[in-house]
Write a structure and sequence with these properties.
It is globular and about 40 Å long. Mean pLDDT is 87; it is low at 155-161. The protein has helices at 14-26, 75-78, 81-88, 104-109, 124-129, 143-148; strands at 3-7, 31-35, 41-42, 48-49, 53-54, 63-68, 96-99. Strands 5-2-1-6-7 form a five-stranded parallel β-sheet. By secondary structure, the protein is α/β, with parallel strands linked by helices. Helix 1 links the parallel strand 1 (3-7) and strand 2 (31-35). It has one domain: Class I glutamine amidotransferase (GATase) domain (Rossmann fold, 3-Layer(aba) Sandwich), CATH 3.40.50.
C-alpha cells in the first residue's frame, strides 16, 4: 500500500493536521511526515513535530497522496522554491492532493491550479497584496459562491481510503 506524504512547515495548523491524520489512521492509511529538515517544526499552536523524512528523501513512487495543512503564516513556505519543488513532484494523475484552508495557495504558487477551480481560506484581495495577480485568482471560488456552487472533487474519494 502506498502512503500519504504529509508536509509540515513553520506555523502549520495542528488542528487541521491532527484531524486529517486521525481520519487516515482510522482508515488504516499509512503516512510519512516530511519537512525541510529533521529539526522540530512548530505549529501555530506551539506543538513541535519532528518529521520522519526530509523533503530531499522523497521517493514519489511510494506515495499516492499529499496532505498540506493551513498555517498561521504560510508566507515562508510559499516563497521557498525547495518546498514548491517537493509539492510539484505530486502533480501526477495517480496522486490525490489534499490542501486544507490556505494551503491551496501553495498549489497555486507551484503552478498546479492553472484552469482549475479552487477555494482557499484567504481573501482574493489579500493574495493580490502578496503578489498574486488577478489572472492567478481567476478560478478562485469565494466562500459564498462555494456554498451555491461547490468546487467539484473537493472531498476525499472513497477508493482512496
Amino acid at each position: 500500500m502506498r502512503e500519504v506524504a504529509v508536509l509540515v512547515y513553520d506555523q502549520f495548523c495542528n488542528f487541521e493536521f491532527s484531524v486529517a491524520l486521525e481520519m487516515l489512521a482510522m482508515a488504516g492509511k499509512p503516512i510519512t511526515v516530511f519537512a525541510k529538515s529533521l529539526e522540530p517544526v512548530k505549529s501555530e499552536e506551539g506543538l513541535s513535530v519532528v518529521a520522519d523524512k526530509t523533503i530531499d528523501e522523497l521517493q514519489i513512487e511510494e506515495y499516492d497522496a499529499l496532505l498540506l495543512t493551513g498555517a498561521a503564516d504560510i508566507r515562508e513556505a510559499i516563497e521557498d522554491e525547495h518546498v514548491l519543488e517537493f509539492i510539484k513532484a505530486f502533480d501526477r494523475d495517480d496522486v490525490i492532493i489534499g490542501a486544507i484552508s490556505i494551503a491551496p495557495i501553495l498549489l497555486l504558487r507551484a503552478g498546479m491550479l492553472k484552469g482549475k477551480r479552487f477555494m482557499a481560506g484567504v481573501n482574493k484581495e489579500d493574495l493580490i497584496e502578496e503578489g498574486f495577480s488577478w489572472d492567478d485568482m481567476k478560478f478562485m471560488v469565494g466562500w459564498d459562491e462555494n456554498l451555491r456552487n461547490p468546487v467539484a472533487d473537493g472531498f476525499i474519494r472513497e477508493p482512496f481510503l
